[in-house]
Backbone:
Protein backbone atom coordinates (compact mmCIF):
# COMPACT_ATOMS: atom_id res chain seq x y z
CA UNK A 1 0.00 0.00 0.00
CA UNK A 2 2.80 2.47 0.85
CA UNK A 3 4.24 1.86 -2.62
CA UNK A 4 0.90 2.51 -4.34
CA UNK A 5 1.40 -0.55 -6.55
CA UNK A 6 -1.35 -2.93 -7.55
CA UNK A 7 0.59 -5.04 -10.02
CA UNK A 8 4.11 -6.37 -10.56
CA UNK A 9 6.00 -6.56 -13.83
CA UNK A 10 6.56 -9.85 -15.55
CA UNK A 11 5.77 -10.14 -19.24
CA UNK A 12 3.09 -7.41 -18.94
CA UNK A 13 5.22 -4.78 -20.67
CA UNK A 14 7.18 -6.91 -23.07
CA UNK A 15 8.95 -10.17 -23.66
CA UNK A 16 12.75 -10.39 -23.56
CA UNK A 17 14.21 -8.91 -26.72
CA UNK A 18 17.62 -8.29 -28.22
CA UNK A 19 19.09 -4.87 -27.42
CA UNK A 20 18.88 -3.74 -31.05
CA UNK A 21 15.07 -4.20 -30.97
CA UNK A 22 14.56 -1.96 -27.93
CA UNK A 23 14.55 1.41 -29.73
CA UNK A 24 11.85 0.30 -32.16
CA UNK A 25 9.80 -1.24 -29.34
CA UNK A 26 9.98 2.01 -27.35
CA UNK A 27 8.89 4.08 -30.34
CA UNK A 28 5.87 1.85 -30.87
CA UNK A 29 4.88 1.93 -27.20
CA UNK A 30 4.75 5.52 -25.96
CA UNK A 31 4.92 5.98 -22.22
CA UNK A 32 1.54 6.96 -20.84
CA UNK A 33 2.26 7.12 -17.13
CA UNK A 34 0.41 3.99 -16.12
CA UNK A 35 -2.08 3.83 -18.99
CA UNK A 36 -4.10 6.76 -17.78
CA UNK A 37 -4.23 5.78 -14.13
CA UNK A 38 -3.36 8.59 -11.73
CA UNK A 39 -0.27 8.55 -9.56
CA UNK A 40 -1.29 7.49 -6.06
CA UNK A 41 1.91 7.49 -4.02
CA UNK A 42 5.10 9.45 -3.50
CA UNK A 43 7.03 6.45 -4.81
CA UNK A 44 4.88 6.41 -7.92
CA UNK A 45 5.60 10.10 -8.49
CA UNK A 46 9.31 9.45 -7.87
CA UNK A 47 9.33 6.59 -10.39
CA UNK A 48 7.44 8.65 -12.96
CA UNK A 49 9.91 11.54 -12.63
CA UNK A 50 12.88 9.16 -12.72
CA UNK A 51 11.62 7.60 -15.93
CA UNK A 52 11.27 11.01 -17.57
CA UNK A 53 14.84 11.86 -16.55
CA UNK A 54 16.34 8.60 -17.80
CA UNK A 55 15.05 8.56 -21.34
CA UNK A 56 18.13 8.67 -23.58
CA UNK A 57 16.02 8.25 -26.73
CA UNK A 58 13.72 11.15 -25.74
CA UNK A 59 10.68 8.98 -26.40
CA UNK A 60 8.87 10.57 -23.46
CA UNK A 61 8.17 14.27 -23.48
CA UNK A 62 6.70 16.14 -20.49
CA UNK A 63 3.84 17.60 -22.53
CA UNK A 64 1.50 20.30 -21.22
CA UNK A 65 1.78 21.08 -17.51
CA UNK A 66 -1.99 20.81 -16.98
CA UNK A 67 -2.05 17.26 -18.41
CA UNK A 68 0.91 15.94 -16.42
CA UNK A 69 0.21 13.12 -13.93
CA UNK A 70 2.61 14.80 -11.50
CA UNK A 71 0.54 18.01 -11.67
CA UNK A 72 -2.56 16.05 -10.71
CA UNK A 73 -0.69 14.20 -7.97
CA UNK A 74 0.69 17.41 -6.45
CA UNK A 75 -2.81 18.90 -6.45
CA UNK A 76 -4.27 15.77 -4.84
CA UNK A 77 -1.56 15.89 -2.15
CA UNK A 78 -2.30 19.58 -1.60
CA UNK A 79 1.28 20.64 -2.27
CA UNK A 80 1.48 24.44 -2.14
CA UNK A 81 5.27 24.82 -1.86
CA UNK A 82 6.04 27.51 -4.45
CA UNK A 83 9.58 26.22 -5.06
CA UNK A 84 8.34 22.70 -5.84
CA UNK A 85 5.55 23.95 -8.09
CA UNK A 86 8.05 26.21 -9.88
CA UNK A 87 10.47 23.30 -10.42
CA UNK A 88 7.68 21.23 -11.89
CA UNK A 89 6.55 24.05 -14.18
CA UNK A 90 10.16 24.61 -15.25
CA UNK A 91 10.38 21.00 -16.47
CA UNK A 92 7.46 21.65 -18.81
CA UNK A 93 8.00 25.24 -19.80
CA UNK A 94 11.63 26.40 -19.54
CA UNK A 95 13.23 26.81 -22.97
CA UNK A 96 16.74 25.74 -21.85
CA UNK A 97 17.41 22.00 -21.61
CA UNK A 98 20.05 22.53 -18.89
CA UNK A 99 17.53 24.35 -16.69
CA UNK A 100 14.90 21.66 -17.25
CA UNK A 101 17.40 18.92 -16.32
CA UNK A 102 18.42 20.77 -13.16
CA UNK A 103 14.77 21.17 -12.18
CA UNK A 104 14.22 17.44 -12.81
CA UNK A 105 17.11 16.52 -10.50
CA UNK A 106 15.84 18.81 -7.73
CA UNK A 107 12.26 17.55 -8.03
CA UNK A 108 13.48 13.95 -8.04
CA UNK A 109 15.44 14.57 -4.83
CA UNK A 110 12.35 16.13 -3.24
CA UNK A 111 10.20 13.13 -4.24
CA UNK A 112 12.85 10.80 -2.78
CA UNK A 113 12.68 12.68 0.52
CA UNK A 114 8.89 12.53 0.57
CA UNK A 115 9.02 8.80 -0.19
CA UNK A 116 11.49 8.20 2.66
CA UNK A 117 9.40 10.19 5.13
CA UNK A 118 6.23 8.38 4.09
CA UNK A 119 7.90 5.00 4.59
CA UNK A 120 9.24 6.11 7.99
CA UNK A 121 5.80 7.32 9.08
CA UNK A 122 4.25 4.02 8.00
CA UNK A 123 6.90 2.09 9.97
CA UNK A 124 8.48 0.49 6.90
Residues:
Amino acid sequence: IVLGCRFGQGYALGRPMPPEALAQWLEQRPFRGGAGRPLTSWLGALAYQWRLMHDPLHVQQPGPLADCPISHFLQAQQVHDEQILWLHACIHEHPAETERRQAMRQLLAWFAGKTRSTCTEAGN
